[in-house]
Design brief:
This protein is 91% helix and 0% strand. It is mainly α and 32 residues long. The chain has one domain. It is rod-shaped. 0% of the residues are buried. Keywords: Membrane, Transmembrane, Transmembrane helix.
Length: 32
């Protein structure tokens, strides 16, 4: 694997984690 491939995978994983975190945060807020 090249460095560029690893970097792109890391970036997409981080973006996915941010999306999941914000999604759960909205769910938690709507429950209140």
């Amino acid at each position: 694997m090249s460095v560029m491939q690893i970097m792109s995978i890391v970036v997409s994983v981080v973006v996915a984690l941010f999306a999941i975190a914000s999604y759960y945060e909205k769910k938690a807020r709507s429950k209140e």
